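testing teh design pipeline on a random one, pls ignore if ur not involved
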């Protein structure tokens, strides 16, 4: 894959270049609130446990985490936050899934549709692109943090399914139900991760070049800047030079 990046890698390179870190806290707080609706004890709530781990990884104060949990369980008042998923096509016909968390569904759908249109894309109906993706556990690790043999042994021992070479990083892929066990195995081995999440990974990808690649990255940035957008997944590859 030398010289180009799949969406999985593009996402993390973009995040590393992003100087607007304030939104990260907002995203994580929303995720904790939503996760805590299924119980405020992280030991019995895998989604909440994952969200708390992600929050601590970026040094979110414990008071913020606890307030978000209490809001989710109803111990603290706050507007109801609902989860929505939008689907659409960007430049070059590339597919996008956009996950959002909002207290105003009408506002968010209007904003997201406008962003797609402004940047050469169009928002589709539910199911229009979701069939191109599969829900997977994905743990991303920089190559200088662990060897291929070490990670492959962990995959085999902890019930993972695949170890993918994404250029500068490895990606451990598993069934979502195996996510917690795989994360625990990586933590026990004291291997630092770039991310560990339940993702939507494209079954096949398309290559974008030149103007289409740049337009897609502008669309991504515009969506990512929206306060309600939690996550974005795509099915395209772009030259590393265009990403950087």
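output:
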């Amino acid at each position: 894959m030398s010289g180009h990046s799949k969406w999985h890698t593009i996402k993390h390179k973009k995040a590393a270049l992003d100087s607007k870190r304030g939104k990260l806290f907002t995203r994580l707080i929303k995720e904790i609130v939503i996760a805590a609706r299924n119980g405020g004890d992280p030991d019995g709530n895998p989604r909440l446990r994952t969200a708390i781990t992600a929050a601590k990884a970026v040094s979110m104060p414990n008071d913020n985490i606890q307030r978000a949990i209490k809001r989710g369980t109803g111990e603290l008042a706050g507007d109801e936050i609902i989860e929505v998923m939008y689907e659409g096509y960007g430049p070059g016909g590339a597919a996008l899934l956009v996950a959002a968390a909002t207290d105003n569904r009408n506002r968010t759908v209007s904003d997201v549709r406008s962003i797609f249109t402004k940047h050469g894309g169009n928002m589709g109906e539910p199911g229009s692109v979701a069939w191109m993706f599969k829900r997977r556990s994905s743990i991303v690790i920089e190559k200088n943090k662990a060897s291929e043999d070490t990670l492959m042994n962990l995959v085999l021992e902890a019930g993972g399914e695949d170890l993918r070479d994404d250029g500068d990083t490895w990606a451990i892929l598993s069934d979502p139900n195996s996510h917690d066990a795989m994360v625990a195995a990586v933590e026990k081995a004291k291997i630092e991760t770039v991310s560990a999440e339940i993702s939507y990974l494209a079954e096949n990808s398309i290559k974008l070049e030149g103007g289409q690649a740049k337009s897609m990255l502008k669309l991504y940035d515009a969506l990512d800047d929206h306060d309600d957008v939690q996550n974005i997944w795509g099915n395209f590859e772009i030259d590393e030079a265009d990403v950087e």
